[in-house]
Amino acid sequence: MIPILGVTEGRPVKRMHSGPAASRHANEAPDRSRFTRGAVRGPDVMKNVRHTMPVETRLLAIAADELRRHGPRHITVVGIADAAGMTHANVYRYFANKAALVDAVAGQWLRRMEATIADIADSPDPADDKLERLIQAWARIHRDLLKDDRNLFDVYCSATETSRPLIRKHRSRMRVLIDRVLDEGIATAKFDPRDREKAHAFVTDSVYRFINPLTVRLDADVPQDILDQRLATMIRVVLRALANGSV
Question: Based on the domain organization, do 232 and 160 belong to the same domain?
Fold first, then answer.
């Protein structure tokens, strides 16, 4: 089975087909505030928040800003400590080293994405509608991060390539959310798979290109409308296969 990967948060994105559900969600777009929440930009703003956040939250906000502006190779624990108004020794009370701090920034983003996916999985809509919107949001969140914060996206790619702990935990949490929607679809007769495990693998394998950071990065120069068309096609294939018991 290909691992499921996927990060990040937002409200359901627009649907790809017509019908009542399409009208309900057509004008909805990801709530990107969830992904910028806690992200503080620029040294002047840093000064204003030094003493208004819990220490760990403050360090993560500063590290996220430094990572966005300079990339992982050029940020230092000393620089982050200085921006936070503390000694670097104090930073080590919260994070073992720079790598742990950078991974914590990436992990924070992943949890925000998971929260968005959970919002969709827990919504009252039919399971097939939820699965479509979930996949669309999953893909859109990846593309947004690639466009908005390439340095953080590259950290995410590196963590994926080396299967670091934050990625393994993320995969497990995403699996739970996908399974929740599949189980609901089976219970309500929206889905009729022959094998639940194979159905899960089929879903994630079918849209792998759009939810894995490494393949998303390879498609960085592909026009968004083309990617949207390809994703819509794969979603139709997935929903049809789940409904007619092809998997």
Answer: yes
Give the pTM. Answer: 0.79
- Domain membership of residue 226 as a residue range: 20-28+99-244
Distance separating alpha carbons of residues 230 and 72, to the nearest angstrom? 33
User: How far, in whole angstroms, is CA 247 from its chain's centroid?
Assistant: 26
Structure token digits, residue 157? 């790619």
From the list 240, 130, 228, the residue with the least C-alpha distance to 179 is 130
* Residue 225 to residues 16, 140, 146, 228, 236, Cα–Cα distance (Å): 12, 12, 16, 5, 17
Distance CA 101, CA 16 (A): 39
The model's confidence at residue 232, banded by pLDDT at 50, 70 and 90, is: very high
Phi, psi of 49 (to 5 degrees): -105, 0
Phi-psi region of 10 (alpha: psi -120 to 50; beta: other; left: phi over 0): left
